[in-house]
Amino acid sequence: MIRLIASLALVGTLTGCATIDGVGQDISGVARTVEGWFR
Hints:
single chain, Entericidin EcnA/B family protein
């Protein structure tokens, strides 16, 4: 189930961004969100 969610998130990220810079920003945003869960 976790793999499915991760795969869908990855596909959504890649299709939602037109540039490599956009993908990097999205990944950074997700990382900050996950980091917030552990604080």
